[in-house]
Amino acid sequence: MRATARVDRSLCQGAGLCEAMGPELFRIDEEGYSENSQRNITNEEKVLLLQDIADCCPTGAISVTVSEQD
């Protein structure tokens, strides 16, 4: 399993919930927007956490794409 996250900066309000839930996956940049700090997540626990974070984003700015690993 492989997952990638995308942050829509037009929706992000910099609430910081993503960084609080997964500091190894997200950070708030110098402009106050969330950005994902890891690409191509393959650890199953982190993939599940990534999906939980996306579900909890108050503005729906985070989308996750999951695919089967080759």
Automatic annotation (TrEMBL):
<dbReference type="InterPro" id="IPR001080">
    <property type="entry name" value="3Fe4S_ferredoxin"/>
</dbReference>
<dbReference type="GO" id="GO:0009055">
    <property type="term" value="F:electron transfer activity"/>
</dbReference>
<protein>
    <recommendedName>
        <fullName>Ferredoxin</fullName>
    </recommendedName>
</protein>
<dbReference type="GO" id="GO:0005506">
    <property type="term" value="F:iron ion binding"/>
</dbReference>
<keyword id="KW-0408">Iron</keyword>
<keyword id="KW-0813">Transport</keyword>
<comment type="function">
    <text>Ferredoxins are iron-sulfur proteins that transfer electrons in a wide variety of metabolic reactions.</text>
</comment>
<dbReference type="Pfam" id="PF13459">
    <property type="entry name" value="Fer4_15"/>
</dbReference>
<keyword id="KW-0411">Iron-sulfur</keyword>
<dbReference type="GO" id="GO:0051538">
    <property type="term" value="F:3 iron, 4 sulfur cluster binding"/>
</dbReference>
<keyword id="KW-0249">Electron transport</keyword>
<keyword id="KW-0479">Metal-binding</keyword>
<dbReference type="InterPro" id="IPR051269">
    <property type="entry name" value="Fe-S_cluster_ET"/>
</dbReference>
<keyword id="KW-0003">3Fe-4S</keyword>
